[in-house]
Amino acid sequence: MKVGFIGLGSMGRAMARNLLKAGHEVTVYNRTHARAEDLAGEGARVADALADTASGEVVITMLADDHALEDVLFGSGNLLGKLRADQIHVSMSTISVELSLSLVEAHRRHGTGYISAPVFGRPEAAEAAKLFVVAAGPKAAVTKCQPLFNAMGQKTFVLGEDPPAANVVKLSGNFLIVSTLECLGEAFALVRKYGIDPQQYLDMLTNSFFSAPFQKNYGGIIAQQRYEPPGFSLRLGAKDVRLILAAADAANVPMPVASVLHDRFLTGISRGLGEKDWSAIAQLEAESAGLK
Amino acid sequence: MKVGFIGLGSMGRAMARNLLKAGHEVTVYNRTHARAEDLAGEGARVADALADTASGEVVITMLADDHALEDVLFGSGNLLGKLRADQIHVSMSTISVELSLSLVEAHRRHGTGYISAPVFGRPEAAEAAKLFVVAAGPKAAVTKCQPLFNAMGQKTFVLGEDPPAANVVKLSGNFLIVSTLECLGEAFALVRKYGIDPQQYLDMLTNSFFSAPFQKNYGGIIAQQRYEPPGFSLRLGAKDVRLILAAADAANVPMPVASVLHDRFLTGISRGLGEKDWSAIAQLEAESAGLK
Amino acid sequence: MKVGFIGLGSMGRAMARNLLKAGHEVTVYNRTHARAEDLAGEGARVADALADTASGEVVITMLADDHALEDVLFGSGNLLGKLRADQIHVSMSTISVELSLSLVEAHRRHGTGYISAPVFGRPEAAEAAKLFVVAAGPKAAVTKCQPLFNAMGQKTFVLGEDPPAANVVKLSGNFLIVSTLECLGEAFALVRKYGIDPQQYLDMLTNSFFSAPFQKNYGGIIAQQRYEPPGFSLRLGAKDVRLILAAADAANVPMPVASVLHDRFLTGISRGLGEKDWSAIAQLEAESAGLK
Amino acid sequence: MKVGFIGLGSMGRAMARNLLKAGHEVTVYNRTHARAEDLAGEGARVADALADTASGEVVITMLADDHALEDVLFGSGNLLGKLRADQIHVSMSTISVELSLSLVEAHRRHGTGYISAPVFGRPEAAEAAKLFVVAAGPKAAVTKCQPLFNAMGQKTFVLGEDPPAANVVKLSGNFLIVSTLECLGEAFALVRKYGIDPQQYLDMLTNSFFSAPFQKNYGGIIAQQRYEPPGFSLRLGAKDVRLILAAADAANVPMPVASVLHDRFLTGISRGLGEKDWSAIAQLEAESAGLK
């Protein structure tokens, strides 16, 4: 399939590469041009301008935040203005439910297709084409894009025809992940304060009930306190927590643990941990317990 | 081995039965005599009085709470007074760190052995001899009891020679489980408020990253809102949350999510959910979001 | 002085009336025209269009929220476009710090003066010209407007030349008020659950240390559970709590009690209390304790 | 009246002195004998042993905590055993509701009178006989003790005949005070982060709505960050917060702000602020916001 791909961060680059590997014809664009050039050697066509990505059947965006996507679509990029009625925009990054609602409306007015298809997985999973894709949008459009999802992920969950539902689900999933970080941090602070060896504790947890891969992964980081280099920075984590709370606020859903997370991440940024891994909130919890 | 076993609730009965199956000579005692009689047919010797359990090498207690254990050991039961120096008390129920500290001291003075060996797992796991045992105590005593743990559990984690460490670890593990209930409840309230099908949401979660068995189990209960009959009642859950906070308090470890849990469980009891499954805290969260 | 006054809710109308009483020449505007007509009999000139308010030295806005003010200034109203360089805009309603920052910039570019001057006090205080005015803006402009503040309030606190500072202070003051509601609600739930008479409890509190007028006022409402008619609705309270958290978020200041408030107000809206007095959060607290 | 007075901390000493000034015959006892000797010059009879305080009509206790009172009454002191049926025990320190319930029962069995009469006010208020006394107990006994309360306080609130009610009210009042510290701390962190002068902010608050004396007092301490010497230490504050939560827990009343306080005070102790004034929790809040 002929695909435009915008946004080549650590996630986007891996995803675009897997599309290439699967034989799709991919035109890539990145604000910082050099990141796009890297993919030329792997068969990508490098767009000089945003508009060049709009020549295929599908344009995928994998951008840092709401602002970046708004800028690409409506702002200086004006990508929306360049899309034809038979083209589909697939938004795969983590954006707000509010923006997703606006995109539904904007694409409806413009006559273009819109699928929301955020993903679960860290850069390693993206590289291994092991992402989980959560897709929502018009059935025909989703079916058309399925080969692309297959090239990037290990499984696609189709949630219906209402794109923002996928964003809600993505955010609520992120909530479950980040709240695990907070809870692990509290648990480790407790056992460490009682003089228990963190690694021994972790072994017990992960070899008994706390056995999901993400639990093992983050448990290991927290047990060893290796918050650098960041897999996903605390500053970006704070952004995600804000999006969760915004979705909760808009629907009047009280989420007290999300509120605890919000205060924790603000503390992390204020105390200079913004560029550490987001699991470094466990360091704050240890400090509050007087550890180290 | 010759073993006394005190406390035949749904956990204790299954554990005693597995000791019998493994060929141990078990004398059982339960305050409500009838529950003990049930095991007679499976080879148990039924004690008429608490003291009769103290004739073997090891006495295991699996009682409802601190109060019950104190009563057995120090109170009307006066079990401690009947134990000889070469006997070992293995405390396997979930008790406070504070009581475990007292037991260390009481057994030291009395000259008897003491192992703290709480378990992870619900009654089904106890029946299937699939418990996880977290043991701490004098090395020789733990080694001696290993065949018993093998008969009841699938794995034993030995945490060192200080018995209360096992209680801290057990409580912190319970914290991770019960905080998962709270977080799942918040996530389900959010997605349901946005009109997303809970079962579809659950499928996505448990077939992607939220894949540990206890996550699937509780996710299913919450998605289907089947809080009866209780696997573990909200009232008992409240007791566990209190023990977690007491351990945190004694060590000056702030645990904000545990505090959220405490308020949630108090609400549950006040609103008449005490005898439902402890995952019914998700019902409170749904109600706070105006659902149902 | 010749003054335009936009926004005649229960606060604005009383404030405009006091300006008239003090001898100022006031042109009033309200989206719902009838509310403006009411003031004609008291000497106000009634503007047919927003632009008619821009003929004096000062234009005061007292609007419901950010959105209303943005619409008046930048949107359909385009009031900003009609202001001359020697005119001053005094924003007196509770708006976000973010919007206040935008206003600084917009007025700077347009060359007009801008004072932020939110007020403390309920409608009764506005009627009695007993408001507390918190003003920030260029010194000369504030001095010029002082007679207006004197006509509407009992005291003016000048916070410096940076307008958003006044908004931060107003929001933090609202935080102290609304957190008092939450804390009173928790305290009343506790004493009521122990069978203590709420009125007797209130008498003790307000005749000893809890003696500020707003404490007496809200204590009385909560003790008697008379949440209707609303002095200030829970729905509007939720808006204020959001503004507080937005200000905290922008400056990375964790405010856990504000987070508790946020969850509480969302619950209130979801449970149908949006149009009751904002102190009705105490009803939610009583219900969580199983009261009534 | 002939009165025994046990416990001569900064509160107790001032209270005993005011009883002497009012002409009562006071026998004082303190574990550290020297503190008692100080009062000899002011007319007190100094007891050599606890039992010597039990010769009058009333024995007042003003001790540090539950433990100290239990020790005096039931433990090594065995004061209860020495009281005659016509004597009244007035417990004036801040104790748990649970202990107060035990005292009701113990005095009933022993046939002695029991009044719970905790006080509001700091040592300066105690010295000036300006305490607020919250009394509950048998009507005749309270009437008999009224002259004593008059000598120590500016006002007595009689809450009925059930002594523990006075303890609940005292604890809930302390909750309102200590939650004010937390909220002030959050508000000051916010305004300071925005560069607003704390003293100017305080002036605005206390000269407008935040006008109760305790608000001014603590606002001043926090604005100036003078947490030493402590008027009431953070460590003792933590004790009070525990008593509040214990009372809430026993009655199944969720108190989320009290939970925030609990975590805050644990953090304070863990971070070495235990001997500072309890308002030093505001320092923790400032640090979490990255201030200083």
Which stretches of chain A are low in confidence, meaning pLDDT under 50 for 5 or more residues running?
none
Strand content of chain A: 5-15%
What is the overall pLDDT average of chain A? 97
First-residue to last-residue Cα separation of chain A = 55 Å
Total strand segments of chain A: 9
Widest β-sheet, arrangement of strands of chain A: 3-2-1-4-5-6
CATH topology of the largest domain in chain A: Rossmann fold
Largest interface, Cβ cutoff 8 Å: A-B, 63 and 63 residues
Describe the biggest sheet of chain A?
Answer: 6 strands, parallel
As a percent range, the share of helical residues of chain A equals 40-55%
**Order of SSEs of chain A:** EHEHEEHHEHEEHEHEHHHHHH
Q: Please, what is the oligomeric state?
A: homotetramer
CATH class of the largest domain in chain A: Alpha Beta
Q: Outline of chain A, from the CA principal axes? A: elongated
The number of helical segments of chain A is 13
Radius of gyration of chain A: 20 Å
For this structure, what is the CATH homologous superfamily of the largest domain in chain A? NAD(P)-binding Rossmann-like Domain
Task: Describe the 3D structure.
4 copies of one chain form a homotetramer. By secondary structure, chain A is α/β, with parallel strands linked by helices. Chain A folds into 2 domains: 2-161, Rossmann fold (3-Layer(aba) Sandwich), CATH 3.40.50.720; 168-288, N-(1-d-carboxylethyl)-l-norvaline Dehydrogenase, domain 2 (Orthogonal Bundle). Helices cover 54% and strands 13% of the residues of chain A. Chain A is built from 13 helices and 9 strands. In chain A, the strands form 2 sheets. A 6-stranded parallel sheet of chain A has the order 3-2-1-4-5-6, sandwiched between helices. Chain A has a 3-stranded mixed sheet with strand order 7-8-9. In chain A, helix 7 (139-152) links the parallel strand 8 (131-135) and strand 9. The longest helix of chain A has 31 residues, at 163-193. Chain A is elongated and about 65 Å long. The first copy, chain A, starts with a strand and ends with a helix. The interface between A and C is medium-sized, with 17 and 17 residues.
